[in-house]
Amino acid sequence: MSFQNMSRRDRMARLIVGLSMLWASWAWAAPEEAIWPVVLRVFSLFPLVTGLLGWCPVYTILGLSTNKPKTPPRDH
Known about the structure:
mainly alpha, 59% helix, 0% strand
């Protein structure tokens, strides 16, 4: 995919962070603090979606990329 601007390591880190946020939102859910689990679930969507797609809109806006282009083999 040519539109990916994230490396495999970056994608894995985002997936781990997103899944950790989801886990925390369910593990520490308390009835009297009902807003924090919802906030964690909403904010976990960004790292999960960008990790799955391999494309980050913030990287695009800033002109960044952690995905190194594949170089063709050199002729000797």
